[in-house]
Every structure is written in C-alpha cells, then in structure tokens.
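Quick start: what a row looks like.
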Amino acid sequence: MHFDAAKVNASFEKGSPLFPGTEDGHYQILTARREKAGQSEVHAKFTDVIYVVEGTATFVTGGEVVDGKTTAPDEIRGEGIKGGTSRKLAKGDVIVVPNNMPHQFTEVNAPFLYLVVKVK
C-alpha cells in the first residue's frame, strides 16, 4: 500500500480514514484533525498509536471515564476523565494508548493534526 502526499494531505483537511481497515479488522489508519477538545474515549479492542503532525494539545490518559456511554460495539464515550495523567503533545510526538485505557484531548491549539494507527 502507498498513500502519496496529496492523498494524505487531502485526508487531513477533513480528518478521515486513510485506510479503513483490513478484512480481518486487525488495523486501521486514520488522519485526524481537531479544532477543539473532545469527549473521553475507551476502545475495548484497539490500541491507538498516535503521531502528532502539527499543533499542540493536552492529552489525558488513565483514570476513569465520567458519564461513559456505549456509542458503538466496544466503544465508550464520556464527558471527561476523573484522575489520569495529563501530557502536552506537540509536533513529532508519539503516544501509544493501550486498549481499555481512557483517553481525552482536553486542550487543543488548532489546527491539531495527528495520524492514528489502530491495532487489534
């Protein structure tokens, strides 16, 4: 598989799946664009490998999801995280979020662009 720079850059304009997944569902590749903070998340089956392409953000991992609700099979979203560890992320940083670990972008200096490889 090859994704040329034009396709990758176009994908970052909206933030979208670059590669929606293998037939066996073992991994996906997403381009993500954030303009503001997001909900807390927990993925039961996927580990997220995140590479920051542009911008800065505060990212919280661990702790407990506040008001979590199942939004799709094996996916929980919530209003925030109680506890957890905050980190400032910037261009070039990589962070690995294991499956079942709550995580959330709480502060975003837009545009914040990052590539996510989701691995089962």
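That is the whole record. The longest strand covers residues 103-119. The domain at 5-119 is CATH 2.60.120.10 (Jelly Rolls).
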